[in-house]
Write a structure and sequence with these properties.
With about 90 residues, this protein is an all-alpha fold. The protein contains three helices and no strands. Helix 1 (about 5-30) runs parallel beside helix 3 and helix 2 packs antiparallel against helix 3 (about 55-85).
Length: about 90
């Protein structure tokens, strides 16, 4: 049996699950001013995925990079959700 696909699928599921609270907490504590960190990390991870020969590590690194990039949009969407009152706003901002 080959578990490559299953390993990549589980890793993707975990990465997406971890990024959901990261986006919420980032917006809560810092707003959207650090979106560029997500961009930088995403570009680095995608570049690394192109350089890694091992399939699972390359795939997971690529998914991680894509998740960083996707989180930029989610960070700004989270800001809108906070403005609508769907999520709490940090009291000191």
């Amino acid at each position: 049996m080959y578990f490559t696909g299953l390993t990549i699928a589980i890793s993707t599921f975990v990465i997406i699950g971890v990024f959901h609270p990261i986006v919420i907490k980032t917006e809560y504590y810092t707003g959207t001013k650090f979106w560029w960190i997500f961009l930088l990390c995403g570009i680095i991870c995608i570049a690394l995925s192109l350089l890694v020969e091992q399939v699972i590590i390359s795939s997971v690194t690529g998914v991680l990079g894509a998740s960083f990039l996707w989180s930029i949009g989610e960070l700004f969407e989270q800001k809108k959700r906070v403005e609508k009152g769907w999520f709490p706003k940090h009291p000191k901002r």
